[in-house]
Every structure is written in C-alpha cells, then in structure tokens.
Design goal:
- This protein has two domains: 47 residues; 93 residues, Glutaredoxin (3-Layer(aba) Sandwich).
- The chain contains six helices and four strands, in the order αααβαβαββα.
- A four-stranded mixed sheet has the order 2-1-3-4.
- α4 links the parallel β1 and β2.
- α4 crosses α6.
- Keywords: Membrane, Signal, Transmembrane, Transmembrane helix.
- It comes from Micromonospora trifolii.
- Pfam families: Glutaredoxin (PF00462).
Amino acid sequence: MLRRWVLAILMAACGVLVAAAQLADGLPVVGGVELLVFLALALLLSPWAFPRSVGAADAQRASAVDGRPIVYWRPGCHYCLRLRFSLGRLARRAHWVDIWRDPAAAAAVRAVAGGNETVPTVVLGGQAVVNPDRAWFRQQLRSS
C-alpha cells in the first residue's frame, strides 16, 4: 500500500527540505512558493489525482452491466496522469483500477500487454487498448 504513495511522499519531503533551506537563507517567500510547487507535484503523483479505484473483479462485473470502459492505471505513471487530465469530468464515466492495489488487475494487464504491466490499459467492449490515444478515448466516453 505504501508503494502507491512513495512518489507523493518524496515530493512533499523534498518541498519541505527546499523550503527550509530557503528559509534558512532568509528567503521565506521563495521557500513558500517552492513548497507549494512541490506539494502540487505530490498531489499530481498521488492516487488522489484519479477517481476512486475499484478492484478488477468489481470493475469487470460493473462494466458488464453498464458497458462503461475499465482503465487500468498506477500511481506515478505520467501517461496515466496525462490520460486522466485530458478526460476531465469524463473520467467518471470509466471504472478505474489501480494495478498496484490489486494483483488480479496487474495480471489482467500483463495478459493483454505481452507480459508487461503497461498502463494505461483500457478495456472497452471486451477489447483491450494499451496506452490509448487520448482523443479517441475521450470520444468513446462521450458516445457511451
């Protein structure tokens, strides 16, 4: 569970250290701004930047009922982050599954990605697309 937060914790810790160094040098405003930048990066790299993650089995059951796509992702993945923020509010129309939180999800991704845990992987209508085009996926979510 801690592995999901490592990058966010490191960013926050670096921000505190940099801010403390700037404060010691007599530059509190610069330190405060740098701290805010590092905290923003920590937020972006944390699981909080994504919709609530569900388990792979729950996502598969729900997708079978409602037809919404499943997005397999992991914290710290900049491709996942780019996909997430390009979707905006449309991201809520998909089931998000954190592969670091669910071993079955990691296995599902390996099964469709040639043994690799390449994310984001989208499963839509039974078809898996590894690292989908953001514009294409946005269009799929709008039409569903």
